[in-house]
UniProtKB/TrEMBL annotation:
InterPro entries: HCY_dom, HCY_dom_sf, Hcy_S-methyltransferase. The lineage of its organism: Bacteria, Bacillati, Actinomycetota, Actinomycetes, Kitasatosporales. One of its GO terms (biological process) is methylation. This is Homocysteine methyltransferase. Zn(2+) binds at residues 221, 281-282.
Length: 303
């Protein structure tokens, strides 16, 4: 049986794009604190439709809608622990069902990455772009471990530990991953060539290398230009890069401001820098993922 590690070793894989922008394009209001995770309970068919659209566009890996799905966040809205566990598992099963039904050149070779967002995502105030919540590594480990356990039971191919803003939280997640038997990629939110909290990315990537569970490291939810520079600092592991489609996030209006980027134009440079997982984050939709997939496919043919 081919594992995700096997697939990653065989050549670059194309990730999907942003979940939220596609849900908003369908007309869904994501202004609440749960963001797209609310639809795991209220409209799971909408999430499944987004996964299908990205697979159809050429994505080989779907990232689940669990970025802001946490026990603490759901509890604040009166959702029980039992129901939260069911919703976390549903986030994986929705992507898996879409993968199993997908046709095209990658039929039977599509993967599911269970999103594990940072503590700051649960706060819904932009903290994942600042970091340093004033919590200890032990406190952050206790926050992450139950969610990881529930997601692991649903059987994803890999954990997408994403938008991590600082080394303290990265260390906590690496501890929480121990013994679960699911590999992970670890990607950071950044400012230039530092984490969002200001630590050198060389240290951040070295920390990722210290865990046997981590099979790739890099950056996501960052300006495309910054992502390219950061990726060049990754060593010892395959790179992962899925930047935003351009502009800046305004946490007060909860909207993106500014022009969009053409991320497919940067893909050749990413691949030359050792990227093995490439995709898009906010403001990147199926059309952009199709262009990216075509670019990755062309690069593979040229090798």
């Amino acid at each position: 049986m081919t594992t995700f590690r096997d697939a990653l070793a065989a050549g670059p894989l194309v990730l999907d794009g942003g979940m939220s922008n596609e849900l908003e394009a369908q007309g869904h209001d994501l202004s609440g604190t749960l963001w797209s995770a609310r639809l795991l309970r209220d409209d799971p068919d909408a999430i499944a439709a987004v996964h299908r659209a990205y697979y159809a566009a050429g994505a080989q890996v779907a990232i689940t809608a669990g970025y802001q799905a946490t026990y603490d966040g759901f509890a604040r809205l009166g959702i029980s622990r039992t129901e939260t566990t069911a919703l976390l598992r549903r986030s994986v099963s929705l992507a898996r069902e879409a993968a199993d039904a997908a046709e095209g050149p990658f039929a039977g070779r599509r993967w599911v990455a269970a999103s594990v967002g940072p503590y700051g995502a649960m706060l819904a105030d932009g903290s994942e772009y600042r970091g340093d919540y004033g919590l200890s590594v032990a406190e952050l480990t206790r926050f992450h471990r139950p969610r990881l356990e529930a997601l692991a039971e649903a059987g994803p191919d890999v954990f997408a530990v994403e938008t991590i803003p600082d080394l303290r939280e990265a260390e906590a997640v690496l501890i929480a991953l121990e013994g679960l038997g699911i590999p992970a990629w670890l990607s950071y939110s950044i400012r230039g060539t530092t984490t969002s909290a200001g630590q050198p990315l060389s240290e951040a990537f070295a920390l990722a290398r210290s865990s046997d569970a981590v099979l790739a490291t890099g950056v996501n939810c960052a300006p495309a230009a910054d992502a390219s520079a950061a990726l060049a600092l990754v060593s010892g592991l395959p790179g992962v890069v899925y930047p935003n489609g351009g502009g800046l996030w305004d946490p007060e209006s909860r909207s993106w401001k500014g022009a969009q980027d053409e991320i497919a134009d940067l893909a050749p440079a990413w691949l030359r820098s050792g990227a093995a997982l490439v995709g898009g984050c906010c403001r990147v939709g199926p059309a952009e993922i199709k262009e990216l997939a075509d670019c990755v496919g062309a690069a593979a043919t040229d090798r």
